[in-house]
């Protein structure tokens, strides 16, 4: 993967982490029984993972001609 690919994926991780934490803070889980949204760390890590995966979809790779 190129430098640009790492940058895009890293940006996705950062944006996802922020969105995951904001989801916990604003919506969250009142009862505390939700596995992902009951704790801020879980929600932030899940958001970071999803953000990295979604932004990685926009990374293009060069095809090799053999």
Automatic annotation (TrEMBL):
Descriptive protein name: DUF6132 family protein
Organism: Flavobacterium luminosum
Regions that span the bilayer: 7-24, 44-61
One Pfam family matching this protein: DUF6132
Keywords of this entry: Membrane, Transmembrane, Transmembrane helix
Source species, domain of life: Bacteria
Keyword Transmembrane among UniProt keywords: yes
């Amino acid at each position: 993967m190129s430098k640009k690919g790492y940058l895009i994926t890293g940006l996705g991780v950062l944006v996802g982490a922020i969105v995951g934490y904001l989801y916990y803070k604003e919506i969250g889980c009142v009862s505390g029984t939700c596995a992902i949204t009951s704790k801020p760390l879980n929600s932030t890590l899940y958001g970071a993972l999803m953000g990295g995966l979604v932004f990685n979809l926009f990374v293009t790779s060069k095809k090799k001609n053999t």
